[in-house]
Amino acid sequence: MKAIVEKPEIIGLPPNVGSWSAIGIPGFVSGALRRWERDQGRLPTRFVLVACPTVEINANGGLPSRVRELTNPRHRLQHFTGCHKPYLVIFLEGEDADARRDEIQQWLAWSEGYQVDCTDGSTRLRFIDAVEERDDILP
């Protein structure tokens, strides 16, 4: 297993997203990555990560079926912030990972998406997009 750094580097996070982002909470990302390794084995070197508060998912009737279709259930985990707020964390791999992330985030209010690069000794998250309030409920 790769050594997971406690404080990953976060690149390009806008201040307005940083004010509500779970990714910026100390220990959140490293804890989620450790859970991946514990549950799935070796952490991929490059992948896309989406995080969304579970309360927002529940407020909209649960995880949308389209999000279920676009994700592998083994690559979705519930992870908690330091103040015990549950978040859905989704790991996406493959050439179409960013396209799937884009569609997934259209369904999830208050979600944030990142390109993650893990190498021995460093973890970098490059901010891609955040969705605060959804404009409408998708079909």
Quick gist of this model?
This protein has 139 residues and is an alpha+beta fold. It has helices at 15-18, 28-40, 54-59, 65-70, 97-107; strands spanning 9-11, 46-53, 76-80, 86-92, 111-119, 122-131.
What does this structure look like?
With 139 residues, the chain is an alpha+beta fold. It has one domain. The protein has five helices and six strands. A six-stranded mixed beta sheet has the order 1-6-5-2-4-3, with helices on both faces. The longest helix has 13 residues, at 28-40. The model has no long low-confidence stretch (mean pLDDT 90).
- How much is the radius of gyration in Å? 14 Å
The largest pleated sheet is described as: 6 strands, mixed
Tell me the strand order in the biggest sheet.
1-6-5-2-4-3
Total discrete domains: 1
DSSP helical segment count: 5
- Name the helix and strand elements from N-terminus to C-terminus, one letter apiece: EHHEHHEEHEE
Question: Topology, please?
Answer:
Elements: E1 9-11, H1 15-18, H2 28-40, E2 46-53, H3 54-59, H4 65-70, E3 76-80, E4 86-92, H5 97-107, E5 111-119, E6 122-131
Parallel strand pairs: 1-6
Antiparallel strand pairs: 2-4, 2-5, 3-4, 5-6
Keywords for this structure?
139 residues; alpha+beta; six-stranded mixed beta sheet; 6 strands; 29% helix; globular
